[in-house]
Design brief:
Elements (H helix, E strand, L loop, with lengths): L8 H10 L8 H7 L5 H8 L7 H7 L5 H10 L6 H7 L5 H10 L6 H7 L5 H10 L18 H13 L15 H14 L1
């Protein structure tokens, strides 16, 4: 793998194929050669591979096709945690990411959700948000606002207004529905 940059691409392909004979993938060798292999060759090599852990998949994610990556992570899904999924999110299909995130046993952390928000469906993001512990600082919602439906955002703002926490809601204004904007403005004026 150290001389891969100087080798003909066909030689690299042969070496990679040799290292995976009998469906025994040499993950270390493949990770070292991945930058020098085309996605199709890498996909063929890993088509039936059983990944040992997510770190191997994370290292190869930028070099794999979306379809192969989705298959690999689904074979590892029992081991998924939100931190690993954040690292893979830019490379996974939205459907696969939604499925894996909802299966995670980790408690949804609002800061972690911010890292996943651009890659999740609105529906999945909202499910995870409402799984967050009530004690979580919901003022962090501003990081998620662009990715939430106006109805969900209105519900969250309503919740925060009930707690008397309106001062930190001003930056959510551009994302709120017209009725909620009026309510929030009135509440802020009433509270002084």
């Amino acid at each position: 793998a150290q001389i891969a940059p100087m080798l003909d691409p066909e030689i690299i392909k042969e070496a990679a194929a040799e290292s995976t004979k009998k469906h025994q993938v040499n993950w270390h060798a493949i990770m070292q050669m991945a930058p020098f292999l085309d996605a199709q060759t890498l996909d063929e090599i890993l088509e039936d591979a059983e990944p040992g852990d997510y770190s191997q998949i994370i290292a190869l994610a930028p070099f794999l096709s979306g379809q192969t990556l989705d298959k690999l992570v689904q074979r590892c899904e029992d081991e998924a945690d939100l931190g690993m999924l954040i690292a893979l999110a830019p490379f996974l299909s939205r459907e696969t990411l939604d499925k894996l995130v909802l299966q995670c046993r980790d408690d949804a952390d609002i800061n972690m959700l911010a890292g996943l928000a651009p890659f999740l469906s609105t529906e999945t993001l909202e499910k995870l948000l409402f799984r967050c512990d009530e004690e979580v600082d919901m003022r962090m919602v501003d990081h998620l606002a662009p990715f939430l439906s106006s109805q969900t955002l209105d519900r969250l703002v309503e919740k925060l207004m009930e707690k008397g926490d309106v001062g930190n809601l001003v930056h959510l204004y551009p994302f709120l529905g017209r009725d909620m904007m009026r309510k929030l403005a009135k509440k802020m004026m009433d509270d002084g």
